[in-house]
Write a structure and sequence with these properties.
Layout: E1 13-17, H1 21-32, E2 36-40, E3 57-58, H2 71-78, E4 86-88, H3 94-105, H4 109-137, E5 148-152, H5 155-170, E6 176-178, H6 180-186, E7 199-203, E8 207-208, H7 211-224, E9 228-230, E10 233-241, E11 244-252, E12 262-264, E13 268-271, H8 277-282, E14 291-301, E15 312-315, E16 320-325, E17 328-337, H9 347-363, E18 380-388, E19 395-398, E20 404-408, H10 414-429, H11 444-454
Helix pairs in contact: 1-7, 1-10, 4-10
């Protein structure tokens, strides 16, 4: 077990709300800097919500923002398609419409390029941080360091991909175009579908692995190092006094637990509650543009290990990601802007889940058990609320309320950005500026000062 290193002027007591990949990574890095850390989560273990069954990709190079000049028209065309990659379900919800208005304002080439630059910077920083944590801890999480490949089924998509590759390479990402033949050499599992593939891209430096397994093992190491985890605890209230966070009121929810509320006090409180960050912060007058994007995944047993993919791949036409996790294949994707609905039993949810299994059967016939439960199969369907911002850039930094911090809004890239977001958050709380070009929330004046010095 790596021992905490006190590298700060003063050890602080820090409370983290949320034990997903973001909150747990933050706890780990704060522990390494010598702080006293308490983590609160309503679930009985770490990583049981958005971090539970995601696409498993650590994709520094595949990080294009949702907001681009083509997105508005595509969203309109997809509105009545139950299986659409991006599905908007309008609600009489001011927060949804506020988010959509800001999203539309980002749907232009200038904003797209600006947002990509920051997302890539955070991704590179985070990948380096993840490699360091893995080297320090030896955590195993079905990791495959074989890159990520992306295939396209139309000539138009190939042309768009070339422009995306050119943009990414400006920021040091080694993503490259590949022909259909080279794509199939990189990942032969898709040979049955070869007639439909028009080309692809490949980034050798990307990887994949199980975010839940990693996060839970990291949480265990944090606990061994002294981090206190209050699982099965609901956050009831943020208490503010004199312009600063005074305490957090929580209540145990497990059967037989003390029913009385408990007050936690610290030198800093970090909100890392994913999509639930925004409604919690609104209770103290802070309005951040984070809205839930309902994502789906299916985890399928592999029937033919020799024919299943080892390289994590993306099906561009359906916006689906596939990653091998031992003897299972994880397929995940689609975004549904439908409020905080996380159900799996509605007709819409069932249609989107069934599409995942059907698509795998189309791509790799007979390789996985894609039968539905009513057919005798056992697919593990899952849905999670991805905390999306209009720019796809997360909020990492300090709020205008003293001692209250935010680390949320990572959308579909929480696993990719988790380690780096945790490290950056720990640095900021400790009074240090992380070494990357990124717009940290609440640090706009510092960013301008750094830019002036660099100039």
């Amino acid at each position: 077990m790596l021992q905490p290193r006190c590298q700060t002027l003063r050890a602080m007591k820090v409370i983290i709300l949320g034990a997903g990949i973001i909150g747990t990574s933050t706890a780990w890095h704060l522990l390494q800097l010598g702080h006293d850390v308490t983590v609160v989560d309503r679930q009985p273990d770490a990583a049981l919500e958005t971090s539970f069954a995601n696409a498993a990709q650590i994709s520094v190079s595949y990080c294009e923002p949702w907001a681009n000049k083509h997105a508005p028209l595509k969203a309109l065309k997809w509105m009545f398609d139950k299986e659409a990659p991006l599905l908007l379900r309008p609600h009489a919800d001011p927060q949804q419409w506020r988010w959509l208005t800001q999203f539309l304002a980002e749907c232009n080439d200038r904003s797209f390029a600006r947002n990509v630059q920051q997302i890539v910077a955070l991704g590179a920083y985070s990948h380096s941080a993840l490699k360091t944590v893995v080297a320090q801890t030896g955590i195993e999480f079905n990791r495959l360091e074989r890159g990520i490949a992306h295939f396209f089924t139309s000539d138009e998509a190939v042309q768009d991909a070339q422009m995306a590759v050119d943009l990414m390479r400006q920021y040091g990402v080694n993503r490259r175009m590949v022909s259909t033949e080279e794509f199939l050499k990189i990942e032969p599992a898709f040979k049955p579908y070869a007639a439909h593939i028009k080309g692809g891209t490949f980034t050798e430096s990307d990887e994949s692995g199980d975010a839940r397994v990693f996060t839970q093992k990291l949480a265990q190491l944090c606990a061994q190092g002294g981090v206190q985890f209050l699982y099965n605890h609901r956050v009831e209230r943020l208490n503010v006094a004199g312009g600063a966070i005074d305490s957090v009121t929580v209540r145990a929810t497990a059967a037989g637990a003390d029913p009385h509320p408990r007050t936690l006090q610290g030198d800093a409180v970090i909100v890392a509650c994913g999509s639930y960050t925004a409604p919690l912060l609104r209770t103290v007058g802070l309005n951040v543009a984070i809205y839930p994007g309902k994502g789906y995944s299916a985890t399928l047993p592999i029937l033919k290990p020799e024919a299943a993919p080892f390289v994590s791949c993306i099906d561009d036409g359906n916006k689906l990601a596939m990653s091998r996790l031992g003897n299972q294949l994880r397929v995940a994707g689609t975004i549904e802007l439908n409020g905080f609905d996380s159900s799996l039993d509605s007709p819409l949810a069932k249609a989107r889940c069934h599409m995942l299994a059907r698509r795998i059967e189309e791509l790799m016939p007979g390789v996985c058990d894609t039968r539905l439960p009513e057919q005798g199969g056992n697919p593990q369907f899952w849905t999670g609320l991805r905390p999306a911002t209009p720019t796809n850039i997360p909020f990492i930094g300090r709020t205008k309320i003293g001692k209250l911090w935010i680390n949320a809004g990572h959308g579909t890239l929480g696993w990719t950005h988790g380690a780096g977001s945790g490290k950056a958050m720990a640095e900021l709380v400790s009074g240090r500026m992380p070494d990357m070009q990124f717009g940290f929330y609440g640090f706009e004046s510092e960013a301008r000062s750094r830019a002036a010095v660099a100039a």
